[in-house]
């Protein structure tokens, strides 16, 4: 089995309207300029000033004691689980969470963690559902160690955990003596949509990370935050996994740039997502989920066209969307403008009319 990602088919035009993912954003000239000017050192030797500036800024933003720079969000999750858990420990998350569905089983492979997925609408669950998952503390049951939540919930349609519900599930976990961890790949989308500062949003979390390669538009990097003790231990796992970098300041500068310029503008992506959903609702046979942030999920089952066929037809016009089972996902980000959204609605209507 070949696990390498497929290359684009020969002859397909380059993406003109790229709704595939907010990971597809390209660094702007201004961001590259900030990277060019970055002061750098040896990150794993502890003397890259730009990486330190990014970590200090992120710790302050999240209201945590310390932070660590890592190459990707996936590595943040695996480092966090390795640090919070011992082999055999149980981690409780939503059944559609990224750690369960999309990280190659790394948490079992590396941390020996047992991942349990809870049911719940839009990628979230209630304190009652979590309470029902508490096991007796006997030698028979796996030791329960960690609650994991995703903000926003990706496969939940980019849904935002209401702060009260987030705090309520964290309280259940802490009451049992478990730790709490947030996959904050799109945390700033949630904060902008809800109008809640990040530190307040994550106050009930023992650890949290933010991805810079999603809507924030940087080419690489994610930062994991937590207590000084937690981040001190996380450094050993970063080293063991080969995540320690050298002149990491080159990319940390892009992340700092994105915090200055690309956070508030996420509101535009949310507006564009709502416009896309409104447009798609007018298309016969399409059933659209209400977008809360920058992700728009829609079902085309009633049109008789399959998701891969629609993707192919759109790709021939330079429009990329992603397929998630029988749902289509369109993702808004800083390289997609309001006129492009209108264009995309027209192209989708036409492609489906042919079905
Ligand atoms: C993208 C994503 C990740 C993984 O982040 P990478 O930087 O791509 O490794 C984890 N969780 C969620 C919810 C994501 O959307």
CATH superfamily assignment of the largest domain? Type I PLP-dependent aspartate aminotransferase-like (Major domain)
Q: Rg, please?
A: 21 Å
Q: DSSP helix count?
A: 14
Mean pLDDT: 96
Q: How is the CATH topology of the largest domain named?
A: Aspartate Aminotransferase, domain 2
* Head-to-tail CA distance between termini: 33 Å
| Largest sheet, strands/sense/barrel | 7 strands, mixed
Enumerate the distinct ligands: pyridoxal-5'-phosphate
Strand/helix succession = EHHEHEHHEHEHEHHEEHHHEEHEEEH
CATH class of the largest domain, anyone? Alpha Beta
For the record, the count of structural domains works out to: 2
Total strands: 13
Spans with pLDDT under 50 lasting ≥5 residues? Answer: none
> Which strand order do you get reading across the main beta sheet?
2-8-7-6-5-3-4
Coarse morphology: globular
Strand content: 15-25%
Derived from helix and strand composition plus strand pairing, the structural class reads: alpha/beta
The helicity comes to: 40-55%
- Second rung of CATH, namely the architecture of the largest domain: 3-Layer(aba) Sandwich
Please explain how this structure is put together.
With 355 residues, the protein is α/β, with parallel strands linked by helices. It folds into two domains: 99 residues, Aspartate Aminotransferase, domain 1 (Alpha-Beta Complex), CATH 3.90.1150.10; 224 residues, Aspartate Aminotransferase, domain 2. The chain has 14 helices and 13 strands. A seven-stranded mixed sheet has the order 2-8-7-6-5-3-4, with helices on both faces. Helix 7 links the parallel strand 5 and strand 6. Helix 1 packs across helix 11, helix 2 runs parallel beside helix 11 and helix 3 packs across helix 10. The longest helix is centred in the C-terminal third of the chain and has 16 residues. The two termini are 33 Å apart. The structure holds pyridoxal-5'-phosphate. The site of pyridoxal-5'-phosphate has 11 residues, from helix 3.
């Amino acid at each position: 089995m070949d696990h390498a990602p497929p290359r684009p088919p020969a002859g397909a035009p380059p993406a003109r309207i790229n709704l595939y993912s907010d990971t597809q954003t390209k660094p702007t000239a201004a961001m590259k300029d900030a990277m060019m000017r970055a002061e750098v050192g040896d990150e794993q030797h502890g003397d890259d000033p730009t990486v330190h500036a990014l970590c200090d800024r992120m710790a302050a933003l999240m209201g945590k004691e310390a932070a660590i720079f890592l190459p990707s969000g996936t590595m943040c999750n695996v480092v966090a689980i390795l640090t919070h858990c011992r082999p055999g420990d149980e981690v409780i998350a939503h059944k559609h969470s990224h750690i369960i569905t999309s990280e190659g089983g790394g948490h079992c492979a590396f941390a020996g963690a047992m991942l349990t997925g809870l049911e719940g609408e839009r990628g979230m669950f209630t304190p009652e559902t979590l309470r029902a998952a508490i096991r007796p503390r006997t030698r028979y049951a796996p030791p329960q160690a960690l609650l994991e939540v995703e903000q926003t919930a990706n496969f939940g349609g980019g849904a935002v955990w209401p702060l009260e519900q987030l705090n309520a599930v964290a309280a259940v976990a802490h009451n049992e003596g478990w730790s709490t961890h947030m996959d904050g790949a799109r945390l700033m989308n949630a904060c902008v949509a809800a109008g809640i500062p990040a530190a307040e949003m994550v106050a009930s979390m023992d650890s949290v990370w933010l991805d810079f390669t999603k809507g924030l538009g940087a080419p690489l990097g994610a930062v994991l935050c937590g207590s000084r003790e937690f981040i001190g231990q996380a450094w050993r796992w970063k080293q063991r996994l080969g995540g320690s970098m050298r002149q990491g300041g080159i990319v940390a500068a892009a992340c700092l740039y994105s915090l200055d310029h690309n956070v508030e503008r996420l509101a535009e992506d949310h507006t564009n997502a709502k416009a896309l959903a409104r447009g798609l609702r007018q298309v016969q046979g399409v059933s659209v989920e209400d977008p809360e942030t920058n992700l728009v999920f829609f079902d085309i089952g009633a049109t008789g066209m399959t998701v891969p066929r629609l993707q192919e037809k759109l790709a021939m016009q330079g429009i990329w969307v992603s397929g998630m089972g029988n749902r289509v996902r369109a993702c808004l980000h800083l390289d997609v403008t309001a006129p492009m959204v209108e264009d995309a609605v027209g192209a989708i209507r036409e492609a489906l009319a042919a079905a």
